[in-house]
Amino acid sequence: MASVPKTTTLIDRQAIDKHYDLYMFKHSATESLNFVGGQYIIINSGKMTADGKQLKRAYTILSNDAEQSTFQLLIRRVDSGNVTAHLRNIAIGTDLEFSGPWGKFVGNAKWPKQGPALLIATDSGITSSLSLLACPKFRDRVNFSKLVWLLSSTEEQNLVEWVRREILSKNANVEFIPVRPSGESWRSSSALSFIRWILRDRNSFSNFFLSGNGIILDEIKVFLEETGADSEFIGMESFFRSEPLNENGIRLGA
Protein backbone atom coordinates (compact mmCIF):
# COMPACT_ATOMS: atom_id res chain seq x y z
CA MET A 1 0.00 0.00 0.00
CA ALA A 2 3.04 2.25 -0.34
CA SER A 3 2.52 5.56 -2.14
CA VAL A 4 3.94 9.07 -2.28
CA PRO A 5 2.37 11.09 0.57
CA LYS A 6 -0.03 13.86 -0.44
CA THR A 7 -0.96 16.98 1.49
CA THR A 8 -4.37 18.43 2.30
CA THR A 9 -5.51 21.43 4.35
CA LEU A 10 -8.22 21.43 7.02
CA ILE A 11 -10.61 24.29 6.18
CA ASP A 12 -13.64 23.53 8.38
CA ARG A 13 -14.81 21.34 11.26
CA GLN A 14 -18.40 21.10 12.51
CA ALA A 15 -19.89 19.03 15.31
CA ILE A 16 -22.83 16.88 14.15
CA ASP A 17 -23.55 15.56 17.64
CA LYS A 18 -21.50 14.67 20.71
CA HIS A 19 -20.00 11.64 18.93
CA TYR A 20 -19.38 12.83 15.34
CA ASP A 21 -17.64 15.73 13.60
CA LEU A 22 -17.75 16.71 9.93
CA TYR A 23 -14.35 17.79 8.57
CA MET A 24 -13.75 19.59 5.28
CA PHE A 25 -10.37 19.55 3.57
CA LYS A 26 -9.05 21.41 0.55
CA HIS A 27 -6.79 19.47 -1.77
CA SER A 28 -3.96 20.92 -3.84
CA ALA A 29 -5.21 23.23 -6.58
CA THR A 30 -2.78 21.63 -9.03
CA GLU A 31 -3.68 18.00 -8.31
CA SER A 32 -6.95 16.03 -8.44
CA LEU A 33 -7.69 13.59 -5.63
CA ASN A 34 -9.21 11.16 -8.19
CA PHE A 35 -11.51 9.36 -5.76
CA VAL A 36 -14.81 7.64 -6.42
CA GLY A 37 -17.72 7.24 -4.03
CA GLY A 38 -17.03 4.76 -1.24
CA GLN A 39 -13.25 5.07 -1.21
CA TYR A 40 -11.13 6.07 1.78
CA ILE A 41 -7.85 7.80 2.59
CA ILE A 42 -5.29 7.16 5.33
CA ILE A 43 -4.39 10.27 7.31
CA ASN A 44 -0.99 10.65 8.94
CA SER A 45 -1.51 12.66 12.12
CA GLY A 46 2.14 13.67 12.24
CA LYS A 47 2.44 12.17 15.72
CA MET A 48 4.40 9.08 16.73
CA THR A 49 3.83 6.15 19.07
CA ALA A 50 6.20 5.45 21.95
CA ASP A 51 8.02 2.89 19.78
CA GLY A 52 8.47 5.32 16.88
CA LYS A 53 5.60 4.35 14.56
CA GLN A 54 3.56 6.99 12.76
CA LEU A 55 -0.02 7.37 14.01
CA LYS A 56 -2.33 6.89 11.02
CA ARG A 57 -6.01 6.11 10.54
CA ALA A 58 -8.30 5.35 7.59
CA TYR A 59 -11.40 7.48 6.96
CA THR A 60 -14.04 7.19 4.24
CA ILE A 61 -14.46 10.17 1.93
CA LEU A 62 -18.03 11.35 2.42
CA SER A 63 -18.21 13.82 -0.46
CA ASN A 64 -19.71 13.65 -3.93
CA ASP A 65 -16.91 12.56 -6.27
CA ALA A 66 -17.99 15.15 -8.84
CA GLU A 67 -16.00 17.62 -6.69
CA GLN A 68 -12.33 16.72 -6.36
CA SER A 69 -10.68 19.87 -5.00
CA THR A 70 -12.39 19.64 -1.60
CA PHE A 71 -13.64 16.63 0.34
CA GLN A 72 -15.40 15.81 3.59
CA LEU A 73 -14.81 13.20 6.29
CA LEU A 74 -17.41 12.24 8.91
CA ILE A 75 -15.36 11.11 11.90
CA ARG A 76 -16.53 9.45 15.08
CA ARG A 77 -14.85 10.66 18.24
CA VAL A 78 -12.97 7.80 19.88
CA ASP A 79 -11.85 8.45 23.45
CA SER A 80 -8.87 6.13 23.09
CA GLY A 81 -8.12 7.15 19.50
CA ASN A 82 -4.88 9.12 19.25
CA VAL A 83 -5.46 10.25 15.65
CA THR A 84 -9.09 11.23 16.20
CA ALA A 85 -8.19 13.22 19.32
CA HIS A 86 -5.39 14.97 17.42
CA LEU A 87 -7.73 15.96 14.57
CA ARG A 88 -10.22 17.46 17.00
CA ASN A 89 -7.54 19.77 18.40
CA ILE A 90 -5.63 20.96 15.34
CA ALA A 91 -6.21 24.48 14.06
CA ILE A 92 -8.15 25.32 10.91
CA GLY A 93 -5.56 25.81 8.17
CA THR A 94 -3.34 22.94 9.33
CA ASP A 95 -1.79 20.79 6.59
CA LEU A 96 -1.89 17.00 6.96
CA GLU A 97 -0.24 14.22 5.00
CA PHE A 98 -2.35 11.36 3.68
CA SER A 99 -2.24 8.47 1.23
CA GLY A 100 -4.92 7.18 -1.09
CA PRO A 101 -7.62 7.08 -2.18
CA TRP A 102 -7.96 3.35 -1.42
CA GLY A 103 -10.77 0.84 -1.85
CA LYS A 104 -10.57 -1.25 -5.01
CA PHE A 105 -14.10 -2.57 -5.25
CA VAL A 106 -15.92 0.72 -5.71
CA GLY A 107 -13.47 1.57 -8.49
CA ASN A 108 -14.79 -1.43 -10.45
CA ALA A 109 -16.06 0.00 -13.74
CA LYS A 110 -18.71 -2.76 -14.03
CA TRP A 111 -20.27 -1.98 -10.66
CA PRO A 112 -23.03 -1.17 -10.09
CA LYS A 113 -24.99 -2.72 -12.91
CA GLN A 114 -28.42 -1.47 -13.90
CA GLY A 115 -31.13 -2.22 -11.36
CA PRO A 116 -31.86 -1.78 -7.65
CA ALA A 117 -29.22 -1.88 -4.91
CA LEU A 118 -29.19 -2.95 -1.27
CA LEU A 119 -26.67 -1.16 0.93
CA ILE A 120 -25.99 -2.53 4.42
CA ALA A 121 -23.88 -0.52 6.85
CA THR A 122 -22.94 -1.18 10.44
CA ASP A 123 -21.85 1.54 12.83
CA SER A 124 -19.59 4.18 11.21
CA GLY A 125 -19.67 2.21 7.94
CA ILE A 126 -22.63 4.46 7.10
CA THR A 127 -20.12 6.96 5.66
CA SER A 128 -19.33 4.62 2.75
CA SER A 129 -23.01 4.22 1.95
CA LEU A 130 -23.59 7.98 1.98
CA SER A 131 -20.57 8.45 -0.26
CA LEU A 132 -21.91 5.93 -2.77
CA LEU A 133 -25.36 7.50 -2.79
CA ALA A 134 -23.76 10.82 -3.73
CA CYS A 135 -21.70 9.24 -6.54
CA PRO A 136 -22.98 10.16 -10.05
CA LYS A 137 -22.05 6.73 -11.48
CA PHE A 138 -24.08 5.00 -8.80
CA ARG A 139 -27.11 7.29 -9.16
CA ASP A 140 -27.12 7.02 -12.96
CA ARG A 141 -27.17 3.20 -12.96
CA VAL A 142 -29.30 2.36 -9.93
CA ASN A 143 -33.04 3.03 -10.12
CA PHE A 144 -33.78 2.29 -6.46
CA SER A 145 -31.74 1.82 -3.30
CA LYS A 146 -32.54 0.42 0.12
CA LEU A 147 -30.08 1.46 2.82
CA VAL A 148 -30.12 -0.58 6.03
CA TRP A 149 -28.10 0.96 8.84
CA LEU A 150 -27.36 -1.35 11.77
CA LEU A 151 -26.37 1.36 14.21
CA SER A 152 -25.26 0.93 17.78
CA SER A 153 -27.50 1.70 20.74
CA THR A 154 -25.24 4.61 21.70
CA GLU A 155 -25.76 6.65 18.53
CA GLU A 156 -27.91 9.74 19.03
CA GLN A 157 -31.12 10.46 17.16
CA ASN A 158 -29.57 13.74 15.96
CA LEU A 159 -27.08 11.73 13.92
CA VAL A 160 -29.83 9.58 12.40
CA GLU A 161 -31.78 12.69 11.38
CA TRP A 162 -28.64 14.27 9.93
CA VAL A 163 -27.99 11.16 7.84
CA ARG A 164 -31.63 11.17 6.71
CA ARG A 165 -31.33 14.79 5.56
CA GLU A 166 -28.09 14.01 3.74
CA ILE A 167 -29.78 11.17 1.86
CA LEU A 168 -32.98 13.02 1.02
CA SER A 169 -31.10 16.09 -0.18
CA LYS A 170 -29.32 14.00 -2.82
CA ASN A 171 -31.63 11.05 -3.52
CA ALA A 172 -35.40 10.78 -3.75
CA ASN A 173 -35.38 7.06 -4.55
CA VAL A 174 -33.72 5.73 -1.40
CA GLU A 175 -35.53 3.80 1.32
CA PHE A 176 -33.63 4.41 4.55
CA ILE A 177 -33.97 1.87 7.37
CA PRO A 178 -31.99 2.75 10.52
CA VAL A 179 -32.36 0.06 13.19
CA ARG A 180 -30.88 -0.37 16.64
CA PRO A 181 -30.03 -3.70 18.33
CA SER A 182 -32.12 -5.13 21.13
CA GLY A 183 -29.03 -5.11 23.37
CA GLU A 184 -25.89 -2.98 23.56
CA SER A 185 -24.64 -3.80 20.05
CA TRP A 186 -25.33 -5.99 17.05
CA ARG A 187 -24.17 -9.59 16.99
CA SER A 188 -23.67 -11.52 13.75
CA SER A 189 -26.70 -13.72 14.47
CA SER A 190 -29.11 -10.87 15.17
CA ALA A 191 -27.86 -8.83 12.20
CA LEU A 192 -28.27 -11.81 9.89
CA SER A 193 -31.79 -12.44 11.20
CA PHE A 194 -32.76 -8.86 10.41
CA ILE A 195 -31.34 -9.05 6.88
CA ARG A 196 -33.24 -12.31 6.34
CA TRP A 197 -36.38 -10.40 7.32
CA ILE A 198 -35.55 -7.55 4.93
CA LEU A 199 -35.25 -10.09 2.09
CA ARG A 200 -38.17 -12.23 3.29
CA ASP A 201 -40.25 -11.93 0.13
CA ARG A 202 -37.59 -12.26 -2.52
CA ASN A 203 -34.11 -11.10 -3.40
CA SER A 204 -34.76 -8.64 -6.21
CA PHE A 205 -31.58 -6.59 -5.89
CA SER A 206 -28.95 -6.44 -8.63
CA ASN A 207 -26.23 -4.84 -6.50
CA PHE A 208 -25.05 -5.03 -2.91
CA PHE A 209 -22.58 -3.03 -0.86
CA LEU A 210 -21.61 -3.88 2.73
CA SER A 211 -19.53 -1.61 4.96
CA GLY A 212 -18.48 -1.55 8.60
CA ASN A 213 -17.83 -4.49 10.95
CA GLY A 214 -16.23 -7.29 8.93
CA ILE A 215 -17.27 -10.06 11.34
CA ILE A 216 -20.94 -9.24 10.78
CA LEU A 217 -20.58 -8.47 7.08
CA ASP A 218 -18.85 -11.79 6.33
CA GLU A 219 -21.96 -13.63 7.55
CA ILE A 220 -24.28 -11.41 5.53
CA LYS A 221 -22.19 -11.86 2.37
CA VAL A 222 -22.36 -15.66 2.66
CA PHE A 223 -26.14 -15.45 3.13
CA LEU A 224 -26.55 -13.22 0.06
CA GLU A 225 -24.54 -15.65 -2.06
CA GLU A 226 -26.68 -18.53 -0.80
CA THR A 227 -29.82 -16.68 -1.88
CA GLY A 228 -28.46 -16.40 -5.42
CA ALA A 229 -26.79 -12.99 -5.43
CA ASP A 230 -23.95 -12.64 -7.93
CA SER A 231 -20.74 -12.40 -5.86
CA GLU A 232 -19.23 -10.11 -8.52
CA PHE A 233 -21.80 -7.50 -7.54
CA ILE A 234 -21.46 -7.85 -3.77
CA GLY A 235 -18.98 -5.22 -2.65
CA MET A 236 -17.59 -5.01 0.86
CA GLU A 237 -15.39 -2.56 2.78
CA SER A 238 -14.50 -3.92 6.21
CA PHE A 239 -13.18 -1.07 8.37
CA PHE A 240 -12.86 -3.07 11.58
CA ARG A 241 -13.60 -6.52 12.97
CA SER A 242 -15.06 -6.76 16.45
CA GLU A 243 -17.43 -8.91 18.45
CA PRO A 244 -19.75 -7.31 21.02
CA LEU A 245 -18.88 -7.45 24.71
CA ASN A 246 -20.76 -9.58 27.21
CA GLU A 247 -21.78 -8.34 30.66
CA ASN A 248 -18.29 -9.12 31.98
CA GLY A 249 -16.55 -7.01 29.35
CA ILE A 250 -15.29 -10.07 27.43
CA ARG A 251 -15.65 -10.13 23.66
CA LEU A 252 -18.18 -12.68 22.50
CA GLY A 253 -16.64 -15.19 20.12
CA ALA A 254 -13.15 -14.55 21.51
TrEMBL record:
Tree of life domain: Bacteria
Organism: Leptospira inadai serovar Lyme str. 10
InterPro entries: Cbr1-like_FAD-bd_dom (IPR008333), FAD-bd_FR_type (IPR017927), FNR_nucleotide-bd (IPR039261), MRET (IPR050415), Riboflavin_synthase-like_b-brl (IPR017938)
Protein name: Oxidoreductase, FAD-binding domain protein
Pfam families assigned: FAD_binding_6
Molecular function GO terms recorded: 2 iron, 2 sulfur cluster binding; flavin adenine dinucleotide binding; metal ion binding; oxidoreductase activity
UniProt cofactor(s): FAD
Keywords associated with the record: 2Fe-2S, FAD, Flavoprotein, Iron, Iron-sulfur, Metal-binding, Oxidoreductase
Domain FAD-binding FR-type: 3-108
Entry keyword annotation includes Iron-sulfur: yes
ATP-binding found in the keyword field: no
Signal peptide (residue range): none
